[in-house]
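Q: Convert this sequence to structure tokens.
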Amino acid sequence: MRADYHTHSTYSDGRFLWSMCEAAEEVGLDAIGFADHCNVSSRERQQRAKHALGFNLDITYERRREAIKGMRERFDIDVYDGVEMDFDSRDIDEISAFLDEAGFQYAIGSVHHLEAVNVHVEPYFARKSEGERADLVDQFFGEVVALLESELFDIAAHVDLVERNPALRGFATDDHYHAVAEAAEQSRTLLELNAGRVLGEYGELHPNRAFLEVLADYDIEFVLGTDSHEPGEIGERKEEIEKFVTAHGLETVELGL
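A:
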């Protein structure tokens, strides 16, 4: 693993730029990409959520870009200026306009919300009936397909993110996996092998192994991302990704940055 395209800094919910760069350099990476969270939806609930979280890269991306220039001078690795956009198919026009304006080196698209609630919030989804949860997982994968079809992004992150939530886990089907694989096969957007919960309760990479078996039938290639928010996560997640890629012979690529 030469480059980690998916890390976060204090410009969203991660740690200082310098500490993340230092950790990346120490574990032997040639490049680190900062893909801080960003939401540009005009819908009221999404506006309230990003204000409560303090996610404001839509306002501060130029300031972060100047800071990244400083990191390039300070460290002997490439430092990339990326973004992780919240994707909702209702916001395509706003996302497109912002990405055109901001001019990031690359953009990651992620489906993070169902019914305007982050998919990690277990109590909210646990109150739903089994049928409702199955419908919500179906909606999630429909949004992932829409993300890939939008052609707005270089990378699609954690395309089975719902599996992190025990209340939503296990509702994904082969039909969902095939729908995503078919969309990915036709899209310029690359899928990501994401290590965000590989050492946590979930204990798997995204996509999970059953999903990867389907994607292999379509010869889908992957970029690699640790989804690290803290310096110490980079090295341990890098190691897990490398072991998995070697063991399963996955095809990986790097962005032409």
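The mean pLDDT is 96.
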